[in-house]
Amino acid sequence: MTKKQLAELRKILEDERDRLLQRSRDAFTTGVDRFVEGGGRDELDEASEDGLKDQEIRLQNRERTLLKKITVALQRMQANEYELCESCGDEIGYARLKARPVATLCIKCKEEQEQDERQTVEDVEVFAPSKF
Ligand SMILES: [Zn+2]
Question: Which of 17, 21, 8 is nearest to 97 (CA)?
Answer without folding.
Answer: 8
